[in-house]
């Protein structure tokens, strides 16, 4: 089955300059103390610095980025098709997610059981997940099983079965998850935020869909989505492992070469969040409330994105070291966790802050969060905060390259963000170049606007005795 996307959707999330996601960076290392990162940097930093990326153009014209690692007896491949859940028809929200969940449930002459047995017998890992702007897949295999793994992937992408048994089983799983979501304050706060901020826009829809829309999806819809979205012109590929360029080109052509040349994507209009400055309450009888604040962010290709990324780390992206964590949790004990994130989507650029707390502490939490946002907007970070943030962000980047699948993921996400094949070499220099004046100017630009707030939980008048748990942090992508 597909990996489930977190609250804000992996590719729409805490996107930092190069991983997102997930999109996958700051939150992958958020629980590691700065001292530990400094120690790890000595060991791991050469990994990123030594990563040599080859641009492979196959005979059929497909581009793939390759990192050779002959010492590792495996091959990892990540791939992505632009489109994602934004391509769901208005009355079939959840279609991309359901399609992704079914791609490993039988293909060609293999029904679901036979397909899964083939994967398991060779220890092949394969999954596909749907995010707002892309459908992302992952394949990992031992070198000795490479040809069979790529053959099964080809079947999954070009000849998915969508048998009724598998469709109904996956549908039941998704419907059960949606029913659970109906009592989850984090899911409800996120759902209400997107619905309110983007009325009538594809981004307003729930990635998993609704009970009604998922119930309406038919095999013909699933086949139609595959035919429209899985194509060569919107494909990005990253490969890492014990494989040479010629072999990689052959396998990529074998897997993807028979897909349609061009995708039939519905244009997704550019949009900005609506109802900024408003607060929306979603009543749900649970012991804690989730608070989600969102406003206008900064586009990934904007020159101010990297300074904004550094500023966000100082404000709320750096976990234990962030201002929000210190003021909300350590100084006042209002919540276990709080985080902020930059979310540059293809058709909108956003900034989020989220936390979870007791119903009677929502107002206090919001007051503290808004005060810290204002303080950062007015004064920016201190020189010491800036130096510490840059040191951390440069050092922790190496942690995105400590496994083959992470490297392959980075290769794809950098392509999706159009950052250039040399981005890994340039990334830390871009962060180091951020000056205090840059940080203060961009903090004012990013944080001076109004934000839409959604709160899911008991109304503030109803107190709850249970302590709050942290809101799951959005996954990240190109750091």
TrEMBL record:
GO terms for molecular function: metal ion binding. Coiled coil: none annotated. It comes from the Bacteria. Pfam families: Peptidase_M16 (PF00675), Peptidase_M16_C (PF05193). Residues 70-201 form the Peptidase M16 N-terminal domain. The chain crosses the membrane at residues 27-48. SUPFAM superfamilies: LuxS/MPP-like metallohydrolase. This is Peptidase M16. PANTHER family: METALLOPROTEASE, PROCESSING PROTEASE. Keywords: Membrane, Transmembrane, Transmembrane helix. Residues 217-392 form the Peptidase M16 C-terminal domain.
């Amino acid at each position: 089955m597909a990996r489930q996307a977190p609250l804000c959707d992996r590719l729409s999330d805490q996107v930092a300059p190069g991983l997102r996601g997930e999109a996958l960076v700051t939150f992958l290392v958020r629980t590691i103390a700065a001292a530990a990162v400094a120690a790890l940097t000595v060991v791991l930093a050469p990994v990123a610095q030594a990563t040599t990326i080859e641009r492979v153009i196959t005979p059929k014209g497909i581009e793939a980025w390759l990192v050779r690692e002959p010492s590792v007896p495996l091959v990892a491949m990540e791939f992505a098709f632009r489109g994602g859940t934004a391509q769901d028809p208005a009355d079939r929200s959840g279609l991309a997610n359901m399609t992704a969940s079914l791609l490993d449930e039988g293909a060609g002459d293999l029904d679901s059981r036979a397909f899964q047995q083939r994967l398991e017998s060779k220890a092949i890992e394969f999954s596909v997940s749907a995010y707002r702007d892309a459908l992302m897949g992952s394949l990992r295999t031992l070198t000795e099983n490479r040809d069979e793994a790529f053959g099964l992937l080809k079947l999954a992408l070009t000849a998915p079965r969508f048998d009724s048994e598998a469709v109904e089983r996956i549908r039941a799983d998704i419907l059960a998850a949606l029913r659970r979501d109906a009592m989850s304050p984090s899911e409800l706060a996120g759902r209400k935020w997107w619905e309110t901020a983007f009325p009538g826009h594809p981004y307003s829809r729930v990635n998993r869909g609704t009970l009604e829309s998922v119930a309406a999806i038919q095999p013909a819809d699933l086949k139609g989505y595959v035919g429209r979205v899985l194509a060569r012109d919107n494909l990005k590929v990253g490969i890492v492992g014990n494989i040479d360029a010629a072999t990689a080109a052959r396998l990529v052509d074998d897997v993807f070469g028979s897909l349609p040349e061009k995708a039939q994507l519905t244009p997704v209009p550019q949009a900005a969040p609506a109802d900024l400055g408003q607060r929306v309450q979603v009543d749900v009888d649970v012991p804690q409330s989730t608070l989600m604040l969102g406003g206008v962010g900064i586009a990934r290709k904007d020159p101010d994105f990297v300074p904004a990324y550094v500023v966000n780390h100082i404000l709320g992206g750096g976990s234990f070291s962030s201002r929000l964590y210190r003021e909300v949790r350590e100084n006042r004990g209002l919540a276990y966790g709080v985080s902020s994130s930059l979310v540059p989507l293809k058709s909108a650029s956003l900034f989020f802050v989220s936390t979870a707390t007791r119903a009677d502490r929502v107002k206090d939490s919001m007051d503290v969060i808004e005060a810290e946002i204002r303080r950062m907007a007015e004064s920016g970070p201190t020189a010491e905060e800036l130096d510490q943030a840059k040191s951390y962000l440069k050092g922790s980047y190496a942690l995105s390259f400590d496994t083959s699948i992470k490297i392959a993921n980075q290769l794809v996400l950098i392509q999706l963000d159009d950052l250039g094949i040399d981005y890994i070499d340039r990334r830390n220099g871009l962060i180091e170049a951020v000056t205090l004046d840059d940080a203060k100017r961009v903090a004012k630009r990013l944080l001076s606007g109004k934000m839409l707030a959604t709160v899911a939980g008991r109304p503030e008048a109803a107190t709850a005795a249970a302590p709050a748990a942290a809101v799951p942090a959005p996954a990240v992508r190109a750091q």
